Structures are given as C-alpha cells and as structure tokens.
Amino acid sequence: TFDTSAIKNNIIAHEKSEFVYTYGTAGFRSNADVLGSVMYKVAILAALRSKKLNGATIGVMITASHNPEEDNGVKLVDPRGEMLEQSWEVYATKLANAKDGDSLVQVVQDVIAQNKIDVETPANVIYAYDTRPSCPHLVKCLELGLKAAGAQSTNFGLKTTPMLHYLVRCINTAGTSDAYGEPTEEGYYTKLTSAFSAAVKGKPRLSTLHVDCANGVGAPKLREMTKHISSDVLSVDVVNEDITTLGQLNKNCGADYVKTQQRAPPSISIKAGDRCCSFDGDADRIVFYYVTEDGTFRLLDGDKIAGLAALFIAELVQEAGIDSIKVGVVQTAYANGSSTNYLTKVLNVPVSCVSTGVKHLHHEAEKYDVGVYFEANGHGTVLFSPDALNIIKTAEAKTPAQKQAITQLAALTDLINQTVGDAISDMLLVEAILTSRQWSFEEWDQAYTDLPNRLVKVVVSDRHIFKTTNAERQLVEPAGLQAEIDALVAKYSNGRSFVRASGTEDAVRVYAEAATRAETDDLAFKVAQLVY
Ligand code: 16G
Ligand code: ZN
Hints:
CATH superfamily of the largest domain: Alpha-D-Glucose-1,6-Bisphosphate, subunit A, domain 3
Strand order of the largest sheet: 1-3-2-4-5
Number of strands: 19
Mean pLDDT: 96
Largest sheet: 5 strands, mixed
Radius of gyration: 23 Å
Number of helices: 18
Low-confidence stretches: none
Bound molecules: 2-acetamido-2-deoxy-6-O-phosphono-alpha-D-glucopyranose, zinc ion
Distance between the termini: 54 Å
Number of domains: 4
Shape: globular
Strand content: 15-25%
CATH topology of the largest domain: Alpha-D-Glucose-1,6-Bisphosphate, Chain A, domain 3
CATH architecture of the largest domain: 3-Layer(aba) Sandwich
Helix content: 25-40%
Oligomer: single chain
C-alpha cells in the first residue's frame, strides 16, 4: 500500500532552507549536514523507481567517494547494477528540493502520473554505506523514508560502492539464465578470487602489491578478500586502513590524491621496484604507480589500465580464434593524447570519446562486443556484450593454446565487475594480466609515454555560462571563447586544451597538454586567464 499521508507526515525538514540540491554526475553530494532531508526523499524515489519497474530491486549507496570526510552523498542503482536512468535524475532533484510535506506529495504524485506507476506494486530497495561518521544518522533518515513509502528493504551495511552495484544485479538476475552471482559479500569474493586463480593458473606469483585504501571502506573489504585467496597466488599489503580515527578518510592518500598531485601518499615509503596502487574512499577507482631507479614517480592511471586491458583482451581473442569479437575503448577528453594515439595507431582499436561521468562511458561501451572504458582518474571497467559472452562460453578449442586463451577470456568475464568500475576487481584484472605476461610495472608503462598535462580549477562567478559540445572538447558559449583558445593552442607543439564546467564543484576546469612541461604549464595558464 502507498500512503501519501505517511510520506507527508514523516518528512524530515530541510536542514538549510536556502540550499538548492542537484542530482549530478555522482548523485547528491555535499556537506553531510544538509543531507538528512535528502535521504528521506531518495528513499521515496527508490521505492517509486522499484514500483515502476515491477518491483525490481533498486540500490541506494550512501557515500561521497573521494570527497573530504565531512561530506557525504547518495546515489541510486538501477536493477542491472547501473546508474539511475538519466531521465529520473530530474525527479530526484525535484523531490530533494520540495520544502514541505504538501509540495513533496505533489512531486510524488507527478512522478506517479507521468510514469503511469501502479502504486500497488511492491517496492524493493537495498542499501549500503561507506565508513563516513555521518553515515549512521543518514541511514536512519533513509530508513524513515523507506518506511513511509512502504518499501521492503534490506540493509547490507558497510560496503564498497561497486559491491552494492554487484548485489543489486545478483538479486535481480537470480534464477535467470543471466544470473550474475550469489547476492552476498561472500559470493562477491568467491566469484572474483576463483576467476583470478583461473586466469593466472600455472604462472608464478608477482611480488607484493602495496594497496593504499585511502583509510576507507576498501581496507576492511580488501583484507576480507585476501582471506579467499592463497598468498601463493596473490600477495597484497594493505596500507592506509585506519577507518576509525576521525579525519583520516582520503586525507593525503587515495586515488584522487595520487592522480591530482602526481605523487605517492606521504604515508607510503616507496622505493624502486615496489609496486603500489591507491583506491579512493568508496573503492570504485584505482591508479597504480612506482618509482624508477633515479627516483622519478611514474603514474599508471586509468588510461594506462585501458591500454593494458585492450591489448590483452584483443590478443586473447586472436589466440582463441574468435576474432569476430571486436574490442573498442571509450575515453573522455581527459584521456592523455598519447594514450588515444597508442590505442588507435598501435593497437588499432576503435576509440570513442564521450562526456565526463561514468554513465556516459558505460552506455557507449555497451555498443562494442567488448567495451573497455576508463576515465583517466581510474574509474572504469570492461563490458562484454551478451553475444560476446555466448561466443566465449561456447568456443571450441582446436589447440592447447586456443584452449588456454578461451579459459582466460572466460575467467576475465567473471573477474571484471561489469556493473561499474571497481577498485578491487580492477586491481585483480591488472594483476591477472601482469602475472600472465610476467610483466613489471616498467614493462606495462612502456606502451607509451604520457604527454605532460595540467588541470587547473578556475573559480568563476557563474560556471553555467560555459556550454560545451563534441564530448566537452569545445565551447559553444560564451561566444568567441573557443576561437581564442584554438588560436592559443595552435602555438604549441602537440598542444591540446579544453574548458568545461565541473559537475561536482562550483568551478570551471581547464585541461592542457603539450610536448613539454613548460609549454603545458604556459598553455594551461593562458587558457585559464581567458576563462577568468
Ligand atoms: C563524478 C563522476 C566521475 C567524474 C567526476 C568529474 C561518477 C560515478 N562519478 O565523480 O566519473 O570523473 O564526477 O567531476 O560518474 P567534475 O565534473 O567535477 O570534473
Ligand atoms: Zn569513488
């Protein structure tokens, strides 16, 4: 039953009446102080979404990823473990900004009418949260909303974001030919670790991988995962796993720190030959790094992971004799020019460029038989189309080499979390490839050399006047600005620069790359001046 008076009467008042909420690229995200009212409404939206989809289970994840510890956020997960369908983001925003019980009920009724929702359909929602101190309170607010909306719900407790995506898909596919796995944390570990063991069978183990967990949820979960795999097969050293001391989450560590600062976290003593990686606060991003003999820091970011995965899978498909399966890669404008060049010119794979944000990459990747997508910041995964999965599953080997390639491909389809980017799964993917090849980070890094690049944040009075086209690579407004940028870029060898409004911060981002560090910095600075 659906009782709008319960929704109206239990409403949680806005913490700050003037605050305007937007469901953006990463759901709602802000200081945790203003999110209680939002959780209540997100719960109602999740219930409506479930009813709309005949009672399919919808996921709610409470996290603010790499943001500071005092922030929090929430996003919805659709039945196949994907991000909330874009057309529903506007409802999320409208609900969140409804200031009193009557206006809230009005928005709810609009959503019901516009989507012809049968309110008698049961609603099923599962939820989970990260290690932030604000989570327990926000979970209570969410639960009040779920109760008011009459939803059936399950609290899955502390989870990484990609684990929740995995659980949603498992629950909704259970008992079908498409069953994704056991809908438990245990099932997640078992699926990933058995796939990893199958992928590296017969190969000597690599040296220990040091994993910076950003003092977040990835730490206990990675520890738990290692219990499911022998240290003869995989050796990881968990670093930055303090999830109880206040203020430690993402502080001077984690994937975002490493990518933006282009250096290792000070808490890690890294010497030549060490293999390291960093997760972000909710363990959906990963970047790898090492230092050379002369002490130079080398980052292996999302672009490098995409290159490695595309190379490995394309070669396996060849070896397996099933090269009707075509591999493609999806990037954003932030991909280093050298990586795009490597993919298109060396690997000869098609590359598409889309707007920033996982949902854009994910949908584009679905167009390929095997779609590899990564943002430079380390968020990404690999999608296998239903046809590709079927070909791999039914392929018959004529030689032992073919058999080996088919087995490895099949293992990868289980190893890779196909719902969303997943630091634990991506870590295992990279380790499986490097183990297979017996490659060091240096060997992986040799594929291409990044062009020097710089990302500058410019605070402007109104970022909304910056409108882009061509997957954010060109400005259409303010009029004339793109022509000025083009004129500047033309003066630099291998120059490239673009400007876009951030979707998560009140600022404009300027990206620049060029042949040398000095040219890059100069270009970034000059473009930033044009914007300001
Ligand atoms: C969000 C996106 C991330 C993107 C970032 C860009 C998801 C789950 N997350 O964190 O993919 O790289 O926004 O932020 O889509 P920006 O718009 O502030 O540059
Ligand atoms: Zn994240």
